[in-house]
Amino acid sequence: MDWGTELWDQFEVLERHTQWGLDLLDRYVKFVKERTEVEQAYAKQLRSLVKKYLPKRPSKDDPESKFSQQQSFVQILQEVNDFAGQRELVAENLSVRVCLELAKYSQEMKQERKMHFQEGRRAQQQLESGFKQLENSKRKFERDCREAEKAAQTAERLDQDINATKADVEKAKQQAHLRSHMAEESKNEYAAQLQRFNRDQSHFYFSQMPQIFDKLQDMDERRAAHLGAGYGLLSEAELQVVPIIAKCLEGMKVAADAVDAKNDSQVLIELHKSGFARPGDVEFEDFSQPMNRVPSDSSLGTPSDGRPELRGSGRSRAKRWPFGKRNKPRPPPLSPLGGPLPWALPNGPPSPRSGLDPLAILSEISKSVKPRLASFRSLRGSRGTVVTEDFSHLPPEQQRKRLQQQLEERNRELQKEVDQREALKKMKDVYEKTPQMGDPASLEPRITETLNNIERLKLEVQKYEAWLAEAESRVLSNRGDSLGRHTRPPDPPASVPPDSSSSNNSGSQDPKESSEEPLSEEGQDAPIYTEFDEDFEEESASPIGHCVAIYHFEGSSEGTISMAEGEDLSLMEEDKGDGWTRVRRKQGGEGYVPTSYLRVTLN
């Protein structure tokens, strides 16, 4: 069924219908255009939101970027940014494939529709013109027939009138004959015009207009099909980005699952672990005894150096911790202004006869307590800290880590320069063997520059290695001091083997102090010492793996052990996160060495 056959008389209906179809196409184009604007605005707002919440500092300089929570949040922001990119892609596809193409197609359809209806209207005008000519010829034929009949009646009346002259009768007959002839010509013209109009009308209704209507039908069907394809492009543009959007959502899910609370706690420790030893107990300085008694060798008083002696002050504490170091000279207590107290100087405390009353002495004691509390707060540093090349402005643990990073960077640069030197040497050999490929002398400046860089980097590596060894010794020393003040070691890696520590402790004790110490105190300390000694012997009896020394290490600080490059060692205890590993040599002896100097294999 087609429009030319079934709708041959619905010219106005077809005109309205085709116009409605084009209006619908334009409305859909406008809808898609506004949808594109919505997608672009949505994507723009998403990108602005992501930009607002993204970290301003680069991840390399931002310590918060090391936490899994921050990393997951940044990953989610990146996924949202990718999602916004997919919305922009949807908007672009809709704008290009729907808006532009359908708008262009709509203009073509309008031109084609206009052409078809102009052709139909011309055919209608031609048919109407033929019909008017037919009507004119018909009216002329009718008028000529009436006039011929009237002229015939007039001639017949004059012929019967006896009073009419012969000339009048002849004239009337001629007039009647003329009118009859004109009527006959009008009749023939009307018949011919009628035949022509019928032929044109048949062509108009059965051939010309059906063809125009069929063309309009084809145009409208093509428009509808194109519009349907445009409807499909709307969903197709969405389906194209669905896999990427699904990956974005999956990335968000992975980022959510990547949050590791335990690891973040460890990261916080790694970032802010200072390596300082915990403040020890504040010692009681008894200033009242010298004021009441005369100093003597057998009483608690002022020794030869002028400082008050506390009973068993250093010996008992060293003995209670079996893995401690030798007694070290404790730094003088600080005054609230940052300097040492006057009585803490090498000249010793003031004499009781110097005029200080007991209230002044108690005031000095209270002043000696405040710096200990302030020193704990001072570990946090300040904004005015001067940055030094060896990072000595940082806490010991952070200094060690920064030096380790710098050392690794210098080693990488050194390896890169060595590789470049080898490449230049090979290129020089090729040039010497094949002169046409290049001049060997042209490579000399680059080789010289590379050698200079290698020498410079070697010096820097040695410098950072020395600083790193010093920092590691300081960390180990601080940890040993901290552990020596507790009855139970909180961090085993900072301890030293019982053999060396016990010998050191015994060697560091003063014979006079040991003779003056009560036997009851020795009996109380002995079980504690034996308990830790047995635990340490059981723990050190079974190696948990073996390791090979990658670099030479001089165990100059107490608690460490020296090793040669390539030496095989027994792994007694893994690194607990402080950068030190306890090992045992085949020749005997245990101690701590830097973990970065070892290649470890666990059993």
Automatic annotation (TrEMBL):
PROSITE patterns: F_BAR (PS51741), REM_1 (PS51860), SH3 (PS50002). One of its GO terms (molecular function) is lipid binding. InterPro entries: AH/BAR_dom_sf, F_BAR_dom, FCH_dom, HR1_CIP4_FNBP1L, HR1_rho-bd, HR1_TOCA, SH3-like_dom_sf, SH3_domain. Gene3D superfamilies: 6.10.140.470, Arfaptin homology (AH) domain/BAR domain (1.20.1270.60), SH3 Domains (2.30.30.40). It is found in: Cell membrane; Cytoplasm, Cell cortex; Cytoplasm, Cytoskeleton; Lysosome. The keyword 4Fe-4S does not apply. Belongs to the FNBP1 family. Residues 393-470 form the REM-1 domain. CDD domains: F-BAR_CIP4-like, HR1_CIP4_FNBP1L, SH3_CIP4-like. This is Cdc42-interacting protein 4 isoform X1. One of its GO terms (biological process) is endocytosis. The keyword Cell membrane applies. Residues 1-264 form the F-BAR domain. Residues 336-346, 497-509 have a biased composition (Low complexity). Residues 168-187, 282-356, 478-541 are annotated as: Disordered. It comes from Mustela putorius furo (European domestic ferret). GO terms for cellular component: cell cortex; cytoskeleton; lysosome; plasma membrane.
